[in-house]
Protein: Imidazolonepropionase
Organism: Metabacillus flavus
Amino acid sequence: MTHDLILFNIGQLLLPETNGKPLKGEDMNRLRVLNNAAIAVKDGLVSWIGSTEEAERLLANEKRNVKGKVVSPGLVDPHTHLVFAGSRENELAMKQAGVSYLEILAKGGGILSTVHATKNASAKELFDKAAFHFERMISFGVTAIEAKSGYGLDHETELKQLRVIEQLHKNYPIRLVPTFLGPHAVPAEYKGKEDLFLEKMIQLLDVIKEEKLAQFADIFCETGVFTIDQSRQYMMKAKEKGFGLKIHADEIDTLGGTELAVSLGSASADHLVAASDEGIACLAESDTVAVLLPGTTFYLGKDHYARARKMMDEGAAVALATDFNPGSCVTENLQMIMSLAALKLKMTAEEIWNAVTVNAAHAIGLGGKAGIMAVGKQADFVIWDVPNYQYIPYHFGVNHAESVYTEGKKRWE
Ligand code: NIG
Ligand code: FE
């Protein structure tokens, strides 16, 4: 057989392994690495993996010498708020003056100011802006991305956002998983009438299901936003309607969103900075992935990060994401998050790589499809201009991706 492409002289080929489930606890420290390796691609799939020496005997239309660099599966970013209008640089000065994230929101700013801008933007404007950020994410080595709505808080604007995500998916050869986050904040006109607002969002779930506009349903369970009981009620309805579940849980206050996520069989529980010991024990007993967002803690200027070490030591599955959004974490750079995970979450390089590949994929329903490198799987991979895989968390704030491939074709370099 003649392969379409062979990469050879790969200094380190990263082969994160999964047994069909997220990697939990100490298994997260296992990362298979092949030295002086080669891979072949045919018809968009990985067709062969072996040594550079063996690759010399294979036929291919194109052979690329990687010159000792690192090759990994494409990264997976399992939590982003990709589609929105406007920006909120004014909040940086407010934060410096000591105004908290929830105080800004309570004053009608924060998420609500982005909602205002997003309502006023056309679908074309939203698409162009989202495409700009999306392309930047890809340039950082990400080939599968979750994208949430949540800056509409009404039927029309939420659907407008979800349709932009659908359009992006059609226009880019990148895996994109849509999540409906209608209950992201309480609109001013529904203050004190949160249950009524949730009713509206639950009705909208039917339209979204019908039009296949989202795979997951998410909610912001937080003081001053939605309570545990409201979150439970909404998530149960979403589950009945066939949505996978996610939750913004225990980010600022310990409300028990982590336990709620596990009890409902959620694919992921996200943030978890304030998750209790009980919440962490629940996670460890489950396959719910803890999606940690250290970029958000960093950007909010907090000193206390999610207790990733305790989570993994107790046996939980941890993934990492950017949380890219215009307020609490303004970066598309998942590599920067890998550095924060090393420095602030004290994760090992092996845990970090598993957290941005196999476990991130499981968090968005792509377990065994994305974040892996194996014969027969889609050929989504990144060539990294680094001497070894530990180098990426170590050298922070820059882009180490040299070229990014999906389905065996170069999409960015
Ligand atoms: O995950 N915490 C709630 N939602 C987002 C922030 C959204 C925003 O500030 O615009 C988050 O951090
Ligand atoms: Fe978020």
